[in-house]
UniProtKB/TrEMBL annotation:
It comes from the Bacteria. Pfam families: Cu-oxidase_3 (PF07732), Cytochrom_C (PF00034). One of its GO terms (cellular component) is cell outer membrane. This is Copper-containing nitrite reductase. It is a lipid-anchor. Homotrimer. It comes from Simonsiella muelleri ATCC 29453. Belongs to the multicopper oxidase family. Its EC number is 1.7.2.1. Residues 22-49 are annotated as: Disordered. Residues 1-17 form the signal peptide. NCBIfam families: Cu_nitrite_red. It is found in: Cell outer membrane. InterPro entries: Cu-oxidase-like_N, Cupredoxin, Cyt_c-like_dom, Cyt_c-like_dom_sf, Cytochrome_c-type_DH, NO2-reductase_Cu.
Amino acid sequence: MKLRTLAMLIATTFAVAACAPQAPANQSATQDKTTAPTNDNKKAAETETAVADLPVIDAVMTHAPEAPPPVNRDHAARVKVKIEVQEKVMQLSDGVEYKFWTFGGQVPGQMIRVREGDIVDVEFANRTDSTVPHNIDFHAATGPGGGAEASFTAPGHVSNFSFKALQPGLYIYHCATAPVGMHIANGMYGLILVEPKEGLPKVDREYYVVQGDFYTKGKYGERGLQTFDMEKAIKEQPEYVVFNGKVGSIAGDNALKAKVGETVRLFVGNGGPNLVSSFHVIGEIFDNVHVEAGSLVNQNVQTTLVPAGGAAMIDFKIDVPGTYNLVDHSIFRTFNKGALGQIKAEGAENKNIYSGKITEGVYQVEGGAIQETPMSASETAKAAEGSPTAKNKEDRIRLGEIGYKNNCLACHGAEGKGVEGAFPPLANSDYLNADPKRGIHAVTRGLSGEITVNGKKYNSVMPALATLPDEYVANILTYVLNNFGNKGGEVTPADVSEYRKSK
Ligand SMILES: [Cu+2]
């Protein structure tokens, strides 16, 4: 095996060497493809060094969400990239495990950053404990399969091949071993950035985010080790859509950080295998978007498409502090399948740009005035009309289920599991079980500021549902207390009304 590898190495080296004298010709071919004349001039100006004379360096590679630092070189190099395939059980969500197939032990694989014109020398190893062969297709490479054939590697073997990073951009790499869809669905993708020769405009922070869809036998949130479901994959019906391989990987305590006044660049990829991402950051407008991660820059963009097997480069300035949610705006994926990330920005408020809530009151259709006072007793009674009165506790639970579905499910989820980093669980909630009045408080007055639920911190805002009648609130909370593994109990309309009167 060693001999074979050596022979292949030599063959690859020869192939590269043989190409070297033709390189200028190759390059003019590339020039024909580009349209911007300024680019052509720049390319022509830089003299081509023979491949053998290029300095050899190791690639700086980073695990998501970190991105490698700018290349900062004014010449080409041979950049050595080492990738080891590892099949590995990791968490897809809290309590949910999945056997991922990975480049380098994490999903996505490490981000690689090279310079336009570099030779990328890939060493591709497949561990002995792997169950199947793997390979790698670099969208940044020009050549059959993007390296897929050259890198096809059985368990316990290692392959080498090289490619020249001819064109700048941010490119997906992925496994392309049959069944290709399954290898990608198991997490085999990552990004390589080919910086233009002049580099990218400087920003204060850069992050690496890759979306992927996952197809588990069990439903979203079903605990235990989950296996791949080919049927769901073929139907393109994932249970999970996540950023960086796990629900909550960049939310809550893992949120990306920034400060007011800073510029942030996101290197966003989409491994797929199936879904196209409508990538959006709630509360931000993208200043610049390298559309499809190519050379075309669009400005003032709200949502950008990131195709499966594609990418986008996005930058924006943070003007005001707060939490910015990264979402796939095909929005059920965010609230029900896990596609939620966060940037937490600290710094000084700027009320001119964003005031925050100035007043809140009850909106009355008749008269149209905003009142500072809560609903009057007669208004509450009116709202309660048509919502039947529960005869007993069982009845209350039954009626509460409907109320829960209409008013709470959107954020806390059908099973009350919430969304890690954004919406706390009502299931088995130590916070709620410690004192059901907390539930009355949250629903009638809203809840904000830091709370800890089942050992996890949440610092978000639940809007008050102040107009729900007492009976209705009592039913919902009784339903919650008697479901989702909570400790039971009953909240009565009298409890709610009493709490409303307290200060
Ligand atoms: Cu593979």
